[in-house]
Amino acid sequence: MIGGGLAGLSSAVVLAEAGFRVSLVEKLPHLGGRATSYLLPNGEYVDNCQHVTMRCCTNLEDFYRRVGAADKIRYYQRVLFLDRLGRRGVLKRSPLPAPFHLAPSFLRFPFLDWRDKRGIGDAMLRIARTGGRSPAQKTSEIGQTMLDWLRKNGQTAVAIDRVWRVVLVSALDEELDRADAAYGRAVFWKAFLKNRRGYEVGIPTVPLGELYDGCREPIERRGGAVRTRAALRSLRVHDGRVAAAVLDDGSELAADYFLAAVPHTALLQLLGPETVANHPVFVNLKNLRTSPITGVHFWLDRAITSEPFIALLDRTTQWIFNKTLLSNRPEIKGQAQEPGQYLQLVISASYDLVERSRQEIMDLCWRELCEVLPAAREAKLLKSTVIKEVAATFSPAPGCDRWRPDAGAARPVLSNLILAGDWTNTGWPSTMEGAVRSGYRAAEALLAAEGQPQPLVLPDLPAQGFARRWESPGR
Ligand SMILES: Cc1cc2nc3c(=O)[nH]c(=O)nc-3n(C[C@H](O)[C@H](O)[C@H](O)COP(=O)(O)OP(=O)(O)OC[C@H]3O[C@@H](n4cnc5c(N)ncnc54)[C@H](O)[C@@H]3O)c2cc1C
Predict the structure, then answer these.
(1) For the chain, what is the total number of helices (H) and then of strands (E)?
(2) Domains of the chain, with CATH numbers?
């Protein structure tokens, strides 16, 4: 197993549980890949970036259960939106059946007028009626951007900015004019329409890296091993197979199967230009683009909000996470500075910030924070940092599914190479759920190759209420 992110870990754990001896190599000192945390020299933990899951992420939840981390995720049933004028909208479930369970709270949003709301309601119904799929696989709709779809479906500029963009830019890490409409519709169907619990927001109560503590035991129990600080330099290819994995120190690892769970750009480097150039499955990966996420961390001398998290409208900052409140752990709460507060601000698809200096980004976000939470104006900023992830996720660009290979797509070329990673063909955008699905699919491919087929990927949450009528088979 190459790569100790969620794809590699989830695959390694289920394969170990199926009786395989798995040797996992990870180049970094810690597990978790992009969804991880670092220990600072002063003993404080900092997440690479706030990571959020939702109840509709069934496979991620299953993985957390397998490794004993499920009780380290707290789910919230209330999402607060705040606009520039300080008006608050709260999304929460009503007793109505799906797909109408969120409609009453949405109808009370003060920053939308009746025309906006009617248009959104119509579009939601259209998505629900087609079970989240493209309304007919019409050729004209293939490769359509989400923005085109919204305009075609009568959405006002306000509705686009204050509802669709707020949800989708975070969920897809992409702007509406660069995201495939099929991904956008699927987010609303799975998270907000299909099942009454799909929208619940799950947030870890511990540093991200701690969620993976339980991964080693099932692997080691079957005689396998997890090695960190073990970077692979290349895959040595011979006679239509991977003959060995060559580590940075020149040593080689042999195995019956090699499961590559590294980002697609890293896979191309490991294979080398000759192998890549000769095979479309690898060449096509060059068409997958990436998009950035920026995280801004502020440590304050006092508490300025009692909300666990807030979604902001009409701002560069998209989310504020109150790490002090969300965490069970003193080193995250920043107890040394009690009664201080540690906030993390997140900006997805942050193309405009990539070229800006860290100081400029910090100033911009601090200004916005003082505007939306006036108590910040009295607070002293004790410490701050900016983490820019320029290639945070792959971009769900229109038609990108063409380039995303199945777990077994490399086997006709290299018979013992299996692919995993959020960028493989899971149908999901670049998310922790997508990564775990890819890991389970890779394990399914390996088990099938060994003549022991076994389904591992769990289905989505079931459709409920009226949404049951509209669910299409296989989704
Ligand atoms: C800033 C940021 C915020 C995000 N927020 C969210 C969120 O809120 N919710 C959500 O669901 N998703 C979020 N994501 C996306 C999520 O983190 C990823 O989709 C997921 O973690 C990808 O997992 P993976 O295993 O496919 O890849 P990775 O996590 O990238 O794992 C690949 C692993 O391979 C290792 N590796 C690479 N090359 C080598 C080599 N040569 N030898 C050995 N090891 C190697 C890497 O070090 C890494 O550990 C976010 C991502 C970022 C960057």
Answers:
(1) 17, 19
(2) 6-70+204-288+397-449 (3.50.50.60), 89-199 (1.10.405), 290-394 (3.90.660.10)
